[in-house]
Structures are given as structure tokens and as C-alpha cells.
Amino acid sequence: MKIAVKIIAVLAAAIGLMAVFAGSRVLLGLYDPGYQYFTSLVSYNVIMGTVSAFAGILIWTRNRKALLISFVILGAHIIVLLLLKTVFGDVISEHSVNAMTFRVSVWIVLTAGLSIIKAKGK
Questions:
Q1: What is the spatial distance between Cα 55 and Cα 44, in angstroms, rounded to a whole number?
Q2: Which domain holds residue 34?
């Protein structure tokens, strides 16, 4: 199970760092994605990317708060995805919806993996 925890930690940190890198480039004007985007959504992605990278560290060190932060990240992403599909559905780019769907999917897997590991007591 130690290897599984390390894999989950690396994936959590990697997805977070990708969001920070991509979002920061857009926010700093270094990259134009070629479609209309909401600065607030990009800012959210950078902030949550930072939180995800931090979560990766907590998971790696087997901190007792790791599972909680995983659930918080997953919950936040689900709420944002629901908002994108409902409230902003007619104005948000499909790329943004797909990216958030990917994040939700990844965090479902990571959180489930951590939950299983915790349930087994390892």
C-alpha cells in the first residue's frame, strides 16, 4: 500500500502543478488559449492547483488530514462543474467544462484510493 499512497501523492501534486502552470500563463498574459475564458475560473484553477500540490505533500507524508483535503478538493471541483454546466452553461467554453470534468474524474479516483487505503488501516 505504500507504493499506492506514493502514486496517489504524485498524481495529486502533478495535476495541481499542471493547473498552476497553465493557469498562471493565462493570467500573466503569456498564453492566449484561443477561446473566451473567465478570469475568475482560471484564478480558481490556479488556487486549487496550489491546494492540490499541497495535498500531494500531505498524502506523501501520510498526514491525517490528507483524506479530508482530498474530499474538500473533490467537493469544490464538483460544485464548480455543476455551476459551469448550469449557471454558465450557455457562455462557458466546452474546453473549460472538459477540463473540470477531467479534474473531478481524477479526484474521484484519488479520493476513492485514499479511502480504501485508510479503511484497510495501512
A1: 16
A2: 2-120
